[in-house]
Design brief:
The complex is a heterodimer of chains A (113) and B (110).
Chain A (H helix, E strand, L loop, with lengths): L3 E4 L2 E4 L5 E7 L5 E7 L5 E9 L2 E4 L7 E2 L9 E3 L8 E8 L8 E2 L3 E5 L1
Parallel strand pairs in A: 2-11
Antiparallel strand pairs in A: 1-3, 3-8, 4-5, 4-9, 5-6, 7-8, 9-10, 9-11
Chain B lengths: L8 E5 L4 E6 L8 E7 L6 E6 L4 E2 L4 E4 L5 E6 L8 E8 L6 E3 L3 E6 L1
The chains are: A mainly beta (113), B mainly beta (110).
């Protein structure tokens, strides 16, 4: 089944403890992106990647890192999480080309205490 | 970057058409308009997208004004299962940046 898989689904951590949220897609998509969603708001783009080894900042990149060493994986790294990074995170992917749709993962609910 | 503006909430009677507006007055020529919906906190579900022509698929129709500054998503026969938050997104698919609005909560009532 074609899908974007995020892990974990839920994560509770403490301030300052490094963590990684994984994202993997099995559709051979070139483009991948991370978003965060806070209560009552739309999704805000954190980082995106047009292809392997190519990453760019979205609207809210502060406090996050990403890497794209292989096409299928796009992990989101929080080197020193803070409570204001408590949020619902979504990963998405799409094929290259302008007229294609985004496929979203099921989300990761992160709580930083 | 283009911004999108949507009404925070709308109601619709079951079986009637739901018309959801979106303003994207700063959209540029190579940015697409996408519509997604989200039920509770699940991953957003694709509905439809377009560049400048009107589009229709099995779920909905998308009407984009000639100047591309606004669009309307039409659900032709709303059902209770269409109750969700609907997001209008402007997406520069060549450059990779996407901008979500804050969404419209559509409530379909019996």
């Amino acid at each position: 089944e074609a899908q974007v898989t995020q892990n974990p689904r839920y994560l509770i951590t403490v301030t300052g403890k490094k963590l990684t949220v994984t994202c993997s897609q099995n559709m051979n998509h070139e483009y991948m992106s991370w978003y965060r969603q806070d209560p009552g708001l739309g999704l805000r783009q954190i980082y995106y990647s047009m292809n392997v080894e190519v990453t760019d900042k979205g609207d809210v990149p502060e406090g996050y890192k990403v890497s794209r060493k292989e096409k299928r994986n796009f992990p989101l790294i929080l080197e020193s999480p803070s409570p204001n990074q408590t949020s619902l995170y979504f990963c998405a992917s799409k094929p290259s080309g302008s007229n294609e749709k985004l496929f979203f993962g099921s989300g990761t609910q992160l709580s930083v205490l | 970057d283009a911004k999108t503006t949507q009404p925070p909430s709308m109601d619709c009677a079951e079986g009637r058409a739901a018309n959801l507006p979106c303003n994207h007055s700063t959209i540029s020529g190579n940015e697409y308009v996408y519509w997604y919906r989200q039920i509770h906190s699940q991953g957003p579900q694709y509905i439809i997208h377009g560049l400048k022509n009107n589009e229709t698929n099995e779920m909905a129709s998308l009407i984009i004004t000639e100047d591309r500054k606004s669009s309307t998503l039409i659900l032709p026969h709303a059902t209770l299962r269409d109750t969700a938050v609907y997001y209008c997104i402007v997406f520069n698919t060549n450059a990779g940046k996407s901008t979500f609005g804050d969404g419209t909560t559509l409530t379909v009532k019996p």
